[in-house]
Design a protein that fits this description.
With 608 residues, the protein is mainly beta. The chain has eight helices and 33 strands. Keywords: Hydrolase, Protease, Serine protease, Signal.
């Protein structure tokens, strides 16, 4: 008995699928346990969709097709040729970021000679190709490709169809470092891999060729741990068609389709137990087994989300450059996020305005005054709304509690936040993350430092007056008005960055909780890269765009032209991320809201 390999696709949502009926080839998304047809193409038996991914990082998925010997992209309705292969013995084994440069690459195997080759892509162009090794015994097949040892490099899993031996190849980029043999097993077919138990390690999924039994091998690094049989063995009319986190709970699920009726459903896996979920609307389509491709989706934790921000990788990705080389540190917190590497490339936040919605800013501070935003359309102190934006004399910002232009600090908080973001590089005091950016002071406190201003109006003001980033190191009551304002910011490609807050809770508080849809939520780590006890965690929903930054023992600016060390809280972590977003936007001002979020999540480093 043989089984189809899982049909993997690799777009922003790795649960998408390709399916066909007698007339059409269609691209489906799984959303709310329904199969949604995103696009259809006239079926041509000579063509095949190889991969779906945003190759040129313009925010739109591109389709990689094969037409007999030719490989080409379909992007925005236009064909972009990649290559024509003269030797049809060459077959694609995997597509993924094999060399760590954030572009997708192609792994090939010659089914006659046994040669293994690697194509390095640069967006939609073939940059180079090389034959890396030859395994002349064709019984050895590349059965899977994943980052099994969590070192950032994709590793190869080989299986011998004759002897039933299994081996890992631990890779350093495209170079083999060592091979490790693991348990041999006969009578079982490897269906794929995924994190089935939530330990952030890839496990192997097998199916028995006689009983239909499904078994999971828990992998620890590159050694086999516990082997677990799932409690039901479906009959052979049911085929495994995909492995992905269909129910968005942080663990990999198993997609099945009935070969005769087309009925489909998935097993929602939770700690190696499963619940069957029926999918609707596949109709007469059958999920296709096209060339498998690896989706390097970011790893999510219910505690630390997508991990510690890595400014060097985020900015390199934003401008499609090679990873940045290390640069000596200026301070532990700046170094932790690899920010000096970005400065060395000339990206310092220039041209970007960051709104700081807080308790006001000391705009006379020597480390801040050169970076305070000035409204170009307003004449100071003439009592006239010169730019007709609805605010009189809003030369440097506005107070949304007192409804006037008093942005002076009601407490030290806003000035402390601002120093982390954009304290000037002037050999005095500290240096902010985006030290060439402009700070737009928007105060939401009254004279008694009560946080009672109109936050929604402040957000809309920031968007309408040119801010690209909004920092909110605050808590606020949920309201439709506030949610609509944050959605408005996202629609204008303005990035809201919000502190997760300091309750030690299992998920972010408002308004950071909106980061499942809009903006970014930020938790705090200490000097040792450990999640602080006070920081609210990310929660179980992988849609929560939650990252980490330093938030303990921070030195920053305070009113009175002074500095203070020992600051702690997610209020200090959020401005580090706001600064990194400003660096990204200064490097590539065309980045959209969704692109910024995706790049930050994909470039995060796991902790713990």
């Amino acid at each position: 008995m043989s089984f189809d390999k899982p049909a993997w696709s690799a777009i922003a949502n790795p649960s998408d699928l390709i399916a066909a009926n007698s007339n059409e080839l269609s691209w489906f998304s799984i959303a709310e346990n329904r199969a949604v047809n995103r696009a259809s193409y006239v079926l041509d038996r000579n063509t095949q969709i190889i991969d779906i991914y945003d190759y040129d990082r313009d925010g739109n998925p591109d389709l990689l097709w094969r037409d007999r010997q030719s490989y080409y992209f379909l992007t925005k309705g236009q064909r972009v040729d990649l290559y024509t292969v003269s030797d049809l013995n060459w077959q694609i084994e995997r597509i993924g970021d094999l060399d760590g440069d954030r572009d997708r690459d192609i792994l090939w195997r010659n089914q006659r000679s046994g040669e293994v080759a690697f194509w390095r892509l640069n967006a939609m162009s073939l940059e180079s190709s090389q034959i890396t090794t030859t395994i002349s015994d064709l019984a050895w097949q590349i059965a899977d490709v994943q980052d099994y040892d969590n070192d950032g490099d994709l590793d190869l899993f080989w299986r011998n169809d004759r002897t039933h031996e299994n081996a890992f190849w631990q890779m350093n980029g495209t170079t083999l470092e060592r091979s490790l043999y693991i348990d041999s097993v006969a009578g079982w077919t490897l269906e794929g891999s995924g994190d089935f138990n939530g330990d952030r390690q890839f496990d192997l999924l097998w199916r028995n060729g006689q009983s239909g039994q499904v078994q999971i091998w828990q992998i620890n690094g590159m050694s086999v741990g516990k082997k677990s049989n799932l409690s039901i063995a479906p009959d052979f009319s049911w085929d495994i068609k995909g492995l992905s986190d269909y129910n968005q709970d942080g663990t990999t699920d198993i997609l099945w389709q009935q070969s005769t009726t087309g009925a489909a459903g998935y097993w929602g896996i939770n700690q190696l137990q499963f619940q069957t979920v029926t999918l609707l609307d596949f109709g007469n389509f059958r999920i296709q087994s096209f060339e498998q491709s690896y989706a390097p989706s970011p790893s999510y934790s219910a505690s630390f989300g997508y991990g510690l921000v890595n400014a060097a990788i985020a900015v390199a990705t934003a401008v499609k450059q090679a990873p940045m080389t290390s640069v000596p540190a200026t301070s532990w917190s700046i170094d932790m996020l690899n920010i000096p590497e970005v400065w060395a490339r000339g990206y310092t936040g220039q041209g970007i305005t960051i709104a700081v919605i807080d308790s006001g800013i000391d705009i006379t501070h020597s480390d801040l005054k050169s970076n305070i935003w000035t409204n170009p359309g307003e004449i100071p102190n003439n009592g006239i709304d010169d730019d007709r934006n609805g605010f009189i004399d809003d030369v440097n910002g506005w107070n949304f509690s007192l409804n006037n232009n008093d942005i002076s600090p009601s407490s030290v908080h806003g000035t402390a936040v601002s120093g982390v973001i954009a304290a000037a590089q002037n050999n005095v005091g500290i240096t902010g993350v985006a030290y060439s950016a402009k700070l737009m002071p928007l105060r939401v406190t009254n004279a008694q430092d009560n946080w009672n201003g109109n936050l929604a109006r402040a957000i809309r003001y920031a968007v309408d007056n040119g801010a690209r980033v909004i920092n909110m190191s605050l808590w606020w009551t949920d309201s439709a008005e506030l949610r609509e304002a944050i959605a408005y910011a996202a629609s204008r490609n303005v990035i809201t960055v919000t502190a997760a807050l300091n309750e030690g809770a299992s998920q972010p508080s408002n308004p950071a909780s909106y980061a499942t849809q809009f903006g970014i939520a930020v938790g705090a780590v200490d000097r040792d890269r450990q999640l602080t006890a006070f920081s609210n965690r990310s929660g179980s929903n992988p849609k929560m765009n939650y990252v980490l930054a330093p938030g303990q023992d921070i030195e920053t600016t305070v009113p009175g032209n002074s500095y203070q060390s020992g600051w702690w809280g997610t209020s200090l972590a959020a401005p580090y991320v706001s600064g990194v977003v400003a660096l990204m936007l200064s490097a590539n001002p065309t980045l959209t809201h969704d692109q910024v979020r995706q790049i930050l999540m994909e470039s995060g480093n796991a902790i713990g």
